[in-house]
DNA sequence: CTGAAAGCGCTTACAG
DNA sequence: CTGAAAGCGCTTACAG
């Protein structure tokens, strides 16, 4: 491979001049610049990443920590991964992917070795050990999700509390007073995932305030069990007039389950939900819902991290993205008893 | 951050001794080794990745090129990404993720700068421009998928031709003579994706050899259109006794579509398919099928690349993973007319 | 507007 | 069994 020395020799200048021409950090005489440009072309020169990182202490790589919990929903996760990657490239960064098996040690490894300039953490838990590793690191980090103790941590997320509240208020405004709430798989709560808890808390608090009855059904991650649970719950609570489904997997089976019981939407049962936008494009989920935009969240997170890398000392930011309901006509006035 | 010099000073040895203790590349007196170990502990030393890469010309990073075609199926793609990441870590490598927007230039960027030791390419097309960039690179690469011209390229993939043939033969053996073949979204064929074409070709060739009639239905990527197409095709070809569905998105809607038409599986219609294993765990797809194991393919690809990185000159390998049918009882003798 | 030189933090032949 | 030194390929103060 051609080095900066080869380019310098070919262009008849010093290595420092080539370097400055590359970085634009000092004015170069136009003709000199042209000669250098040509030399670069001819020799096919690209600066060595390791050498540059060593000299500048900057790698232009962001670490992305993704646990890939098996119970989580692939299209959602993928949306974040893709969003982070594309946004990072827009700002000149590459993305190093660190997945589950390693857990905590992965963060230490990529930060302590100086492999990355910063870290984005996905699937933040309410009490997340990994945040300790992030605080120890000399590189900045941004969380996608909100932990219990967010002191001095930059966080970005959809406002899942507002989302839960909005959906309950939406049903309440239509006149619904008894709602079936299909939650995420229990494992996700056990894993202490912030968004799962915040959404559920919003639903239970808001419904309590508004005097609504909410029957919770723990959404399974296993398809057959899930369908059975939904059916059983509909039998158990004949008073419910609406279904609030926060379970991506279940949404796909829902049309079938409801049809099996001859329940028309929205005449017999209103259905509202929350799911990733990618999901709606891939499957038939004809329900009024809040669409979580991984792209928007990822983009904000990457921007924030890039800013932090440049100016580490500004105070931590918490950015909640306001949810928006897309009306697909699956909610209406409750059926008359 | 502590450098190797700090460790050397603390342990009272030279930097080279610390380096050799780290690499194990020459014997070190046990007591010396212990002192060094302790110094590393106390100072919290981790070797700088850039410096090491510069000195050794090895980054321990594999590039993973993933186009993330929107028509493709998230669980499938995610399976490969996750599989590559985990397998790479097992061998000591990190993974740098390069996604669509950049396309071709991304490969040049990460190889020419020496950022990666090798590249894994996903979603290989039959005629894939990116392979040219890979051939130009000084680092080795492995394709997940088989291009038309695989000269001197390492390739790993599920044997999609064998898969298509197996499923057709399976139906033929049961006595089916007219089959509806629901293909992947047309866009994937237009994108020239190898696996889409190979599977389809296997289906059409095998059925021709066996004297079977195959009606193709172009699977849409848009959910509503897809369901309509399936229904229309079932009406159009009343002679079909079996459905061969190679369309992940459609599989989820299928139970509903078939129920709408009062078609029982397998009494009225046999259904066989091919889908990623992750998919079956997430959704209810009760069909006899070949399960594509992204994990297995990814693991082979990573191993192959690691070998290439160590010994670049051995001849190129093509590794096709034999498909296996999982019987879920959705195929039976054809209904009597 | 440009060059010579030091330095980033490692590894590894060379020497003992 | 260990050390001193050169070198990997960049960047950037220092000097002119």
Provide tags for this entry:
337 residues, elongated, 47% helix, homodimer, six-stranded parallel sheet, DNA-binding, 12 strands, alpha/beta
Topology:
The structure is a homodimer of 337-residue chains.
Chain A: H1 4-11, H2 15-23, H3 30-43, H4 49-56, E1 61-66, H5 74-90, E2 94-99, H6 104-112, E3 118-121, H7 129-136, E4 141-144, E5 154-158, H8 160-174, E6 178-185, H9 186-190, H10 194-210, E7 213-219, H11 223-236, E8 242-245, H12 248-260, E9 270-276, H13 277-282, E10 288-292, H14 294-310, E11 318-321, E12 325-326
Helix pairs in contact in A: 1-2, 1-3, 5-14, 6-7, 8-10, 11-12
The structure holds a DNA duplex (16 and 16 nucleotides).
Account of the protein in words:
The structure is a homodimer of 337-residue chains. Chain A contains 14 helices and twelve strands. Chain A has 337 residues and is an alpha/beta fold. In chain A, strand 8, helix 12 and strand 9 form a beta-alpha-beta unit. In chain A, helix 1 packs across helix 2 and helix 6 runs parallel beside helix 7. The longest helix of chain A has 17 residues. The model of chain A has no long low-confidence stretch (mean pLDDT 91). Chains A and B meet through helix 4, helix 5, strand 2, helix 6 and helix 11 of A and helix 4, helix 5, strand 2, helix 6 and helix 11 of B. Chain A binds a DNA duplex (16 and 16 nucleotides) through helix 2 and helix 4.
């Amino acid at each position: 491979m051609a080095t900066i020395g080869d380019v310098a020799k070919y262009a008849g200048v010093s290595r420092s001049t080539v370097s400055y021409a590359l970085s634009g950090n000092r004015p170069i005489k136009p003709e000199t610049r042209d000669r250098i440009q040509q030399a670069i072309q001819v020799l096919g020169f690209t600066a060595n990443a390791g050498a540059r990182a060593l000299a500048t202490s900057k790698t232009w790589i962001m670490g992305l920590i993704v646990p890939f919990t098996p119970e989580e929903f692939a299209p959602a996760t993928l949306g974040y991964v893709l969003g982070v990657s594309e946004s990072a490239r827009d700002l000149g960064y590459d993305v190093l992917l660190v997945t589950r098996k390693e857990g905590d040690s992965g963060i230490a490894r990529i930060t302590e070795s100086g492999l990355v300039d910063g870290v984005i953490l996905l699937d933040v838990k309410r009490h997340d050990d990994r945040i300790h590793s992030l605080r120890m690191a000399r590189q900045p980090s941004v969380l996608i999700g909100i932990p219990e103790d967010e002191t001095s941590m930059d966080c970005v997320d959809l406002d899942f509390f507002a989302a839960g509240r909005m959906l309950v208020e939406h049903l309440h405004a239509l006149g619904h007073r008894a709602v079936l709430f299909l939650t995420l798989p229990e494992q996700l709560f056990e894993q202490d995932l912030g968004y799962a808890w915040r959404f559920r808390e919003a639903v239970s608090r808001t419904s309590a305030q508004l005097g609504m009855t909410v029957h919770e059904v723990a959404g399974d991650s296993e398809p057959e069990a899930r369908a059975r649970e939904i059916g059983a719950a509909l039998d158990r609570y004949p008073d419910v007039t609406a279904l609030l489904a926060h379970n991506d997997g279940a949404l796909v089976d829902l049309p079938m389950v409801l049809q099996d019981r001859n329940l028309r939407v929205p005449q017999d049962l209103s259905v509202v939900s929350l799911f990733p936008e990618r999901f709606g494009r891939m499957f038939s989920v004809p329900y009024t819902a809040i669409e979580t935009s991984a792209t928007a969240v990822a983009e904000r997170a990457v921007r924030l991290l890039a800013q932090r890398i440049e100016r580490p000392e500004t105070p931590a930011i918490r950015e909640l993205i306001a949810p928006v309901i897309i009306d697909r006509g699956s909610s209406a006035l409750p059926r008359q008893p």
